[in-house]
């Protein structure tokens, strides 16, 4: 018997992937935790959209994009639905993922699971996809609910342009959920206690939701100080601030929402007068151009999700079964 | 099947940092055997098992299970080997059957086949009545039986169990040992670790003694007895008559290595074989009255304790 010189593993790393995905989705969709969150998001959607309809009824026929306004119209004291999405989505994603891996260890199912003919790759990806598909399902249902309410409340169907923009918004929301899910998953590998993992993920969420914007102002002042009040200095200051704030997934997602729901928005950055050349102010962009506008945001979010997932993968591969 | 060992390791070593958990392990387990891994806590039994299943990577050395390399071909190994960990867990919110269905799916079994195997396994471990109850309501013993059902689902050629009888009541343990014998009868090779020596002695064909990561002794229980206790059989006699003459007569039997007199009218004979008939005859010939005669069974308990006493003794000096 010779030691094998070849280090390559045999068999597909994805054997058993769909079994894991199916199990995870079934778990999530029946769990009390998820049902509470679903109720919360349904109430939010119902409440904000109902309020928006009250506001929008007067403008039916004048507005080409009235369905998009269902998402963005706020009526005191309620903020718009998209305002809620920015923090509800991370909450749902974290709730789905904070005990993915440590939960298996704590239930002592991990060694039994890994003794089945599957690679750890399939287990980790299966768990991620199971959560992501669950999110996709929930958000798609919410979108349909909103459109349904709109059909009843406004009495007009959405036009093709609106439908496409809403689908893109749905995709972007799922991607945004994915990054938080990957982050929570890392904590579920890192920390043995699900409570620690959940709190760490929530701390990150709060950090980006509340503190990052404050920090950005300070950091930008340090990196690109405005000393003499020159216009170049101020432009540089604003651009630094913008770049920094885009490190936060929340900023990226908010900008995506703006570009998709407000077709008139032509740029997400600082716009200099020279760039206005040839643009007719106030005319809406076709959806393709709005999507071009958010393309870097989307790919950035996806790339960050992949990086986080890769980090989770490396940590999980190194983890002892008994640890 | 060929005569190649079902489990084979050469120089298998596992280090955790500086600490060597398993050192140069050379082990062979033949087809259809029940092999017991023994040794004090922390001597490397679980680590060995995990390496055989590809659940932890060896630092050095090779392992082959059914001819497959657990490091490079873990799927092949795990499709054929059932593993009962020392602590088995299930999804409490699912029923027994649902837990088994998940295992069947992970093993890629088609639905009708999975259904049939699950029914069979549940019946075999006596859980069919509670199959649709949530595992959260199960007692320790029921979970244990579900753990066994879980490995039976894949119709394994090899079963590896880590301290499988720990925590079972005497009745449960007996049933479990009966089940293991049944599995052996089907030609399944079984490797188990345990601290319950009389049970190991009862069911294992061969055992291996671990000490601080090294496999120190391997063999059948009588073989270990000869190695550790230095003799094969100890016969105890109670006889009335002239002590000198009786001792002399016993010593004269071919194959007897020593005769002691631990008390009045009692004799201890160390022999290379079971010489009870010869001893009885010798006593009668020498004019004694035989009152009692028994051969001390070679208990694994005695062997184990003696061995580790000696090892500790060596370590001190
Ligand atoms: N992940 C780890 N990191 C460091 N040391 C470890 C790790 N896992 C196990 N060990 C050490 O390896 C040694 C062997 O452990 P192992 O679990 O194989 O023993 P065992 O024979 O199964 O013991 P027991 O009878 O108590 O189950 C122990 O000293 C243990 O502390
Ligand atoms: Mg152990």
Would you write up a description of this structure?
With 323 residues, chain A is mostly helical. Chain A has one domain (4-318). Chain A contains twelve helices and no strands. Chain A has helices spanning 17-30, 32-56, 66-72, 81-97, 100-106, 110-114, 120-154, 160-190, 194-223, 231-245, 249-261, 287-318. The radius of gyration of chain A is 23 Å and the shape is globular. Chain A starts with 16 loop residues before the first helix and ends in a 5-residue tail after the last helix. The model of chain A has no long low-confidence stretch (mean pLDDT 89). Chain B is an alpha/beta fold and 317 residues long. Chain B folds into two domains: 7-219, 3-Layer(aba) Sandwich (Rossmann fold), CATH 3.40.50; 233-297, Alpha-Beta Plaits. Chain B contains eleven helices and 13 strands. Chain B has a six-stranded mixed beta sheet, with helices on both faces. A four-stranded antiparallel beta sheet of chain B has the order 11-12-10-13, covered by helices on one side. Chain B has a three-stranded antiparallel beta sheet with strand order 2-1-4, covered by helices on one side. In chain B, helix 3 (96-106) crosses helix 4 (111-124), helix 4 crosses helix 5 and helix 8 (221-229) packs parallel to helix 11 (300-316). The longest helix of chain B is centred in the C-terminal third of the chain and has 17 residues, at 300-316. The relative contact order of chain B is 0.12. The chains are: A mainly alpha (323), B alpha/beta (317). Chains A and B meet through helix 1 and helix 6 of A and strand 4, helix 2, strand 5 and helix 3 of B. Bound molecules: adenosine-5'-triphosphate (ATP) and magnesium ion.
From the structure above, extract its key features.
heterodimer, A: 323 residues, mainly alpha, 12 helices, B: 317 residues, alpha/beta, Rossmann fold, Alpha-Beta Plaits, 6-stranded mixed sheet, 4-stranded antiparallel sheet, 11 helices, elongated, binds adenosine-5'-triphosphate, binds magnesium ion
